[in-house]
Write a structure and sequence with these properties.
Its main location: membrane. InterPro entries: ABC1_TM_dom, ABC1_TM_sf, ABC_transporter_C-like, TMD0_ABC. Belongs to the ABC transporter superfamily. ABCC family. Conjugate transporter (TC 3.A.1.208) subfamily. This protein has 47 helices and 9 strands. By secondary structure, it is mostly helical. Among the domains are: 195 residues, no CATH class; 321 residues, Up-down Bundle (ABC transporter transmembrane region fold), CATH 1.20.1560.10. Strands 1-2 form a two-stranded antiparallel ribbon. Strands 3-4 form a two-stranded antiparallel sheet. The chain has a two-stranded antiparallel sheet with strand order 5-6. Strand 5 and strand 6 form a beta hairpin. Helix 12 crosses helix 13 and helix 17 runs antiparallel to helix 19. 49% of the residues are buried.
Length: 1244
């Protein structure tokens, strides 16, 4: 027997399989318990201590007061140090104790406990109220001490002779274990708030700052807000303040610091050149010298990486850990299937089930923290970009302003900055997806061998297809953004001049102009819908194709290949890991679809010796399921990166625009004249001189009029008296809203005009042509409008808005579904039910196939199983494709209809509603909301459908040729005594006549018929959706243009624009996609529970309690997230309103040097929006952790019941049950999230 190097170190065996594994009563050796189980937690503390020290150094707090918690921690650590010293002294003084382990282990423990005590004190000194590192250290030490505790107790009970050293070890270790458990429990509590902090400590601080580490990783600190949101409608006062590090005050300066450095480097690298021009006019001549620089554009990406890269990198490590744990589930599934089919002791099966639950739970926590970190990094990026764009808008030159409209700049904030946030969440898939694909293929190779290459070949072939798709998406995206910018710009101009439009009855003319632009958008959407519908078709085939091709390849490639339950269900589990991203973007699912189908088909068809048994089938499918996520995420990531690259170029172009020189205007206090221009030379942004030799002197108490076609603003009058200037300055200091400032700056300041500038109610008389307002004076103008329209109740609009946004009634769903078409909606549900039926049938059939021994020897039986399995997949393809395309067309039709309604209603509103509606809110409806609705439509239907038809047709012919050649070769090479003597000639001729004829003609014809019918169905649905979108937009536009002036006087303009931007975007993209996905998701959950219950009938007993728990979590989340979405939507409009008004009055703002004040107000509005958005992010993580834990319970019970019922279950049923359970976690999460998204998109 070989000895381990650690045997001599411990004086006993380090590892003994007979004691640990090959026994009914397992235990660990004393050497292993005293080394690995002690050294591992200590090593963890020392290795990751640099992170703790790093956060201590960055801490903004100081001096946590002494409390019972931190004093108790130090006392317990001191007790552990003392106990360890006694252990060391006892070992040295006891005779016969010569093994080095009794000396080295206490020394390691002593150093570690001293270091842990030091960290406790440093946490107190630097203001850290809880430590994740110390919590995990004491947790690991407690868990690792449990085996030795069991060993010591059992040894003590069995001890007959007295042994002083053994008795001492028993007592000492029990004290050690008790102190360790107590220390672990103390880490569930948090210390008192620090005495000193960089930030003000208030009662409204984020609860996360006062939450312990366990509360943070489980997001338990969000429970109170979830309960409040469930019991009553949330208000802004119910929300807490955001964390200081997420505020504009902290984020913007850090980003601008790195951005300014990037600009400086770019300017230094620009090449300069001197241009000389000579002009001669009559007897005079002039020479102009002009210095020009090459236009090198600085990119925002380096500044973003330097500012947020550290936080992002830590999240990437969390993602790496989660990815590695993902592949543990298929291996454990393989062990469970082997356990059921073998005669191993029961404790092993229980250990497998518990290990599967622990692995899934750890994945849940890692993934929750990863997404939470990535979402907040994206939020900070969005904040930084909005801040930079706003500051740039204040200093951009006039020549550069010609190339950027208000609508375009607003879209930079509303759409382009948001795309950075969306991309940040999944950008790690750049390395994560290849890693998962590589590991999945490695494990699949271990099971199926070279048959996996069939699926891999399909993925490689589709790489250029993805490149073409990415280019098409980029082209469509650019067109869509241009059309949207043009539409929002025109809508902004219409609302700004609504009084003039109504005076001359020009509403129909402008309505037609807006609808023409909308028609251009719809054309782009149609192209996207065609492409997307075809993509949905390919995606619906993915799970089945991946499995059938891989299994068929495996079985047919070699007669010795048998599809066992282990192989089948482990492969299915690996496939399922890659499934959920496919839902996000159907384009990418093409990979996963064809991977499993090609792989299995190759395995089965290559050699008759390859048999698909339960082990092969379900272990392989488990691995294939893992492949689905990265394979589907890669195309989605490519699409997001393409869209973000467009946004990067747009933002880079804007931020690199020419700026005004602040030194052009000088302020000299010694000069008596308020305005003096001597020999002035004026040009338009560096172009040829427009005006030269201008001399102007304006004295006090002098009225001067400057008349000319170059004027942009209204004629401004200079105040007659100095006290008026002082009054204006005082008003500037006291005014609250940017709108008040602009109106007062534009208002005539003479005494006569000042007496007329206010009405009896005290409201400001707005004489500006822009007629723009903000939320700060909305209530004031609403009171004014009540005098104009006395029959309108005072709070009618407010009550109506609250009633419509507080909850979602069935009438709202019914109205939207009616816009889509009731027939199409019902057909979608039925077709998805049929799809799930085929899905269940295919997996049940696979389970039967993998356990049928006759399929191992009879190729005709094997071929029958393979054919029926393929038929189930064809049914899935047919049902899913028709359903997805039908709903896509209906959704586009509904979005078009709603946009038309919105436009019509806005144009019919009275002026009173316009005066009380912020412009940004209305613009948001016509820009971002419309964009949201449009983008969810499928984008890749035409190309995908065409390629699918071509591939299937060519593939059928190639399969016919290959099968004919293989069949002929095997017949000719078959031995006479073993084949021709027992096989009728008719059967052989039948293979060469009827079967080959079927593959040559019937199969391609059937496939063509399916593809054609699916394409026509999808096309019908897409056209219906587009028509609905057009009709909606047309009705909305007509309604708005035909509204009375009272409506415009009482409705903030920003709210109207929001209807035509964000709301239409929701109708075009988000809402159809959510409703389309929620139907199959619900049916998938039901199907999973049904399959597990069929496989393991006892599982039905836990469905009810798990269902109640799921329902409770779902109701809490949906109620709270819907209201958070409402608050976030309401707080988003003021950002765009204030920004639009700032751009319109930027000359006045610069004239009075109040840029800092407006920047501060913009940052405050962004923070107010984030105040509502941050809880929404936490709500998503809160939901994910709880729902995934519910899913983990399903996994636990499915595995546990399979282990306990192994006497009555076969390996195929066990693999089917557990592999389905492994798929349900993300499905449950997505079901609740889509339900919430549907409601929030409807009410927002």
């Amino acid at each position: 027997m070989e000895t381990h190097p650690m045997d001599e170190f411990c004086g006993s065996r380090f590892w003994d399989l007979n004691l640990t594994w090959y026994t009914d009563d397992p235990d660990l050796t004393p050497c292993f318990q005293q080394t690995v189980l002690v050294w591992a937690p200590c090593a963890f503390l020392w290795v990751f201590s640099f992170l703790e020290l790093f956060y201590l150094r960055k801490s903004a707090n100081k001096d946590v007061p002494w409390s019972v918690v931190n004093v108790s921690k130090l006392l317990i650590v001191g007790s552990l140090v003392a106990l360890t010293i006694v252990d060391l002294v006892k070992a040295i003084s006891t005779d016969g104790i010569s093994a080095p382990v009794y000396y080295y282990t206490p020394v390691i423990k002593l150093a570690t406990f001293v270091f842990a005590g030091l960290l406790v004190y440093l946490n107190k000194h630097y203001g850290m109220r809880t430590s994740g590192l110390l919590f995990l250290f004491w947790f690991l030490l407690t868990i690792c001490s449990i085996p030795r505790t069991r060993t010591e107790i059992r040894a003590h009970e069995a001890r007959v002779l007295e042994d002083s050293w053994a008795e001492y070890q028993f007592v000492s270790f029990l004290i050690f274990f008790s102190l360790t458990c107590l220390m672990f429990l103390l880490n569930f509590f948090i210390d008192k708030p620090p005495r000193q902090s960089k930030y003000e400590i208030t009662d409204k601080d984020c609860p996360e700052l006062s939450a312990s580490f366990p509360s943070r990783i489980f997001f338990a600190w969000f429970d109170r807000l979830a309960w409040v949101g469930f019991r009553k409608p949330l208000e802004v006062d119910d929300l807490w303040k955001m964390k200081p590090e997420d505020s504009s005050k902290e984020v913007s300066p850090a980003f601008l610091h790195h951005w300014n450095k990037t600009l400086e480097k770019t300017y230094q690298t620009r090449e300069t050149s001197n241009d000389v021009t000579f002009k001669k006019l009559g007897n005079t001549a002039s020479v102009d010298f002009r210095t020009t620089k090459s236009k090198n554009i600085a990119s925002i990406l380096p500044a973003l990486i330097k500012t947020f890269g550290g936080t992002f990198l830590l999240g990437s490590f969390l993602k790496l850990g989660q990815d590695l744990l993902t592949f543990a589930s298929p291996q454990i599934l393989k062990l469970i299937i082997d356990f059921v089919s073998g005669d191993e002791p029961m404790w092993k099966g229980l250990m497998y089930a518990i290990t599967l639950f622990v692995v899934a739970g750890t994945q849940t926590l890692l993934l929750g923290q990863y997404f939470n970190r990535m979402f907040f990094v994206g939020l900070r990026i969005r904040t930084a970009l909005i801040s930079a764009i706003y500051r740039k808008a204040l200093i951009i030159s006039n020549s550069a302003r010609k190339g950027s409209t208000v609508g375009e700049i607003v879209n930079l904030m509303a759409v382009d900055a948001q795309r950075f946030m969306d991309l940040t969440t999944y950008i790690n898939m750049i390395w994560s997806a290849p890693l998962q694909i590589g590991l999945a293929l490695y494990f699949l190779w271990q099971i199926l061998g070279p048959s996996v290459l069939a699926g891999l070949a399909v993925m490689i072939i589709l790489i250029p297809v993805n490149g073409v798709i990415a280019n098409m998406i980029k082209t469509l995206q650019i067109k869509q953004m241009k059309n949207k910018d043009e539409r929002v710009k025109l809508m902004n101009e219409v609302l700004s001049g609504i009084k003039v439009l109504k005076l001359y009855a020009w509403e129909p003319s402008f309505e037609q102009q807006i609808l023409k632009i909308r028609d251009k958008e719809v054309k782009v959407l149609k192209s996207a819908a065609y492409l997307n519908a075809g993509t949905s078709f390919i995606w619906s085939c993915a799970p089945f194709l991946v499995s059938i091709i891989s299994f068929a390849t495996y079985v047919l490639s070699d007669d010795s290949h048998v599809l066992t339950p282990v192989k089948a269900f482990v492969c299915l589990t690996l496939f399922d890991i890659l499934r959920m991203p496919l839902v996000l973007l159907p384009v990418l699912i093409v990979y996963a679809i064809q991977v499993s189908l090609v792989t299995f088909a190759t395995y089965v068809l290559v050699d008759e010796n390859n048999v698909l048994n339960a082990s092969t089938a379900f272990v392989s499918l488990s691995l294939f399921n893992i492949l689905r996520f990265p394979l589907s995420m890669l195309p989605m990531l490519i699409s997001n990166m393409v869209q973000t690259s467009v946004s990067v170029k747009r933002i880079n172009t804007f931020l690199n625009q020419e700026e005004l020189d602040p030194d052009n205007v000088q302020h000299d206090e010694k000069e008596s004249s308020p305005l003096l221009i001597e020999n002035g030379v004026f040009s338009w942004g560096g172009e040829d001189t427009t005006l030269k030799n201008i001399n102007v002197r304006v004295e006090r108490n002098q009225i001067v009029a400057v008349v000319g076609t170059f004027l942009i603003q209204h004629l401004q009058e200079v105040s007659e008296e100095e006290e008026d200037l002082d009054e204006i300055k005082q008003q500037l200091e006291n005014s609250v809203g940017g709108e008040d400032l602009l109106n007062q700056l534009k208002r005539t300041n003479s005494k006569r005009s000042r007496s007329e500038s206010t009405s009896e109610t005290g409201s400001v008389k707005d004489i500006s042509r822009q007629n723009s307002t903000t939320d700060s004076n909305s209530s004031l103008r609403r009171r004014t409008s009540e005098k104009v329209v006395p029959d309108v109740p005072k709070t009618k609009l407010i009550e109506q808005e609250k009633s419509e946004t507080g909850s979602v009634k069935w009438e709202v769903y019914k109205h939207y579904l009616k816009s889509i078409g009731l027939t199409l909606s019902v057909a979608t549900v039925i077709l998805n039910m049929i799809f799930q039926g085929f899905s269940i049938g295919s997996n049940l059939w696979l389970s039967r196939w993998s356990t049928d021994e006759s399929a191992e020897n009879d190729t005709s039986v094997r071929d029958m199983y393979l054919g029926v399995y393929g038929a189930f997949g064809a049914g899935q393809v047919l049902a899913n494709f028709i359903a997805s395309l039908t709903f896509a067309l209906g959704a586009l039709y509904a979005a078009k209809t709603m946009h038309e309604l919105l436009l019509r209603y806005v144009l019919r509103w009275p002026m009173s509603l316009y005066d009380t509606t912020p412009l940004g809110r209305v613009l948001n409806r016509f820009s971002k909301d419309v964009d949201t609705v449009d983008n969810t439509l499928p984008q890749l239907i035409l190309l995908s459908t065409f390629l699918s038809t071509l591939f299937l047709y060519v593939g059928a012919l190639e399969a016919s040729r290959t099968l004919h050649k293989t069949l002929l070769r095997r017949v000719l090479h078959a031995p006479l005594t073993s084949f021709f003597d027992i096989t009728p000639v008719g059967r052989v001729l039948n293979r060469f006549s009827k079967d080959i004829d079927t593959t040559d003609s019937d199969l391609p014809a059937t496939l063509r018929a399916w593809i054609l019918s699916l394409y026509l169905s999808v096309l019908t649905l897409v056209m219906g959706s587009i028509q609905a979108t057009l009709i909606l937009h047309r009705r909305l536009l007509a309604g708005i243009l035909r509204s009375g002036m009272t409506f415009f006087d009482t409705t903030p303009r920003g709210r109207i624009i929001a209807r035509f931007s964000n709301d239409i975007n929701t109708l075009d993209y988000s809402l159809p996609m959510n409703i389309k996905n929620i139907i199959p998701t619900v049916l998938r959950v039901v199907a999973t529970l049904v399959v597990i219950s069929i496989s393991t009938p006892i599982f039905a007993a836990v469905i009810v309690p798990i269902g109640v728990l799921y329902y409770a979590v779902q109701r809490f989340y949906v109620a709270t997230s819907r209201q958070l979405k409402r608050l976030e939507s309401v707080s988003r409009s003021p950002i765009y309103s204030h920004f639009g008004e700032t751009i319109q009055g930027v000359q006045t703002i610069r004239a009075y040097s109040v840029q800092d004040r407006f920047i501060t107000e913009s940052d405050e509005r962004v923070d107010s929006n984030q105040l509502c958005y941050c809880p929404s992010i936490i709500a998503n993580r809160w939901l994910a952790v709880r729902l995934e834990m519910v899913g983990n319970l399903i996994i636990l019970f499915a595995a546990l019941f399979a282990v306990l019922g192994r006497e009555t279950m076969n390996a195929g049923l066990v693999g089917l049950s557990v592999s389905y359970a492994l798929q349900i976690t993300q499905t449950l999460n997505w079901l609740v999230r889509m339900t919430s998204d549907v409601e929030t998109n409807i009410v927002a």
